[in-house]
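Take a minute with the sequence and fold tokens given here and flag any structure token that looks odd. Thanks in advance.
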Amino acid sequence: MARHAALADFEVLQELSPEGGDATLLVRSKGGSLGTVRVLIDRPVPGDVATALTREASVGARLAHDAIVKARALLVEPDFAAVVTEFVPGVSLQRLLRFAAARGVRLPDSVAWYVLERVLAALVHAHGQSPPIVHGGLSPASVVVGWDGAVKVDDFGLARLRAIVAPHLGLREGTPPLMAPEQASGAPATAKSDVFAAALLAVRLATGRTPYARFRKSATEMLLAMTEADVAPLKKTRPDLPAAARDALDRALAADPAQRDVTSDELLKIVRASFDVQQGKAGLEKLLARWREQLEASVTPWERRASIPDDVVAASSETKEGTLALASPDDRPSADALVAVDSEPVDTWNKRSVPREEVALAATDPQTSLSRLGSVASDALLMPLPAMRMTMPSLPTYGGPAVNIPPPPPKQFSGRLAAATVLVFFVGLMAFAVIIFRWLLGP
């Protein structure tokens, strides 16, 4: 995309322009700090839209917490609008969970509950504002995990900013892929909606499974399932969890907001009392150290190449190819978030047993694993190869020659074969010498 004059004060390091989505840029300010620019609209901005954007951005600017990505500025010009936030070098929680699930494992419990504790801490801070600030679209895609173990919630207010400009882009107002039942029914998001979303995230972390995955074949069926909050409770999928935390999270998953009698603050206190979150942070740092190389390699070649603008000659170690993509959610379908089963359940609405798509995966253990992925699943190294995109021979191919394919070993003679060959050659040479000698002596 062409650089707008509003970005003149930033050095653009990387940019991503997904199909049908907003352009996202990784920038460096004149002061040297990294930031993320999300373009909201790059066409004439009506005055009432600019006013609404400014008012909404001022709400998010009130949030100041170490578990929330900081909003730095709102850029509004007559023909351009974008929001600037801090950049957290790391990986999107969505990509991290997909990475683990594709290998048949989930995060260790200590790591999972540390991540949830950070998310709940962010919600408590936002809900404690006057008036309360609601996220409205909390999911793994809105959480970023730093390489240093920091966990931060992103996108506070971003859904509302996009909703403001959507009519002027010819788009319908977007809805989060997973949402509380009242949101699925068309009601606005509230603090209780955020509590439900946090409980859904807890289910994802505790089991390694994507909620509502068994309804993914039909959008109508998915919407109906979200309206009824048809998720297997943790008392069935993870009965080994501490009763206080398990029961509180199951209450947070109540379909009726009136029966959702637990707040984000209460959930936070229960999680802190039930789990050693500091141990979880240490475990997360070790896990990321072991997985970082593979996570960075999981970014597709197209994401890496597309992320470097043509006028950027070389990237530093902190902004290598794919850095922005890895810290951003993956917009591809989450088919790889499920582990294949032999057959589909006969009745996806059967609530008497736990659906196979929601049975908890085995937890990975980076401390004792023999593999770099830290997997303890027996079939973790037998996963099928992912689908690969083919290119026409006339098109350029990125990534260089194939790697990790050893050349065929050179042909070698065994010891006995070599000795026999030398002996035969020597006997033949002696016989030839005798014949020549006799010929020279004559009759």
Observations:
- The CA atoms of residues 400 and 406 lie 16 Å apart.
- The chain has 14 helices and ten strands.
- The chain has a mean pLDDT of 81.
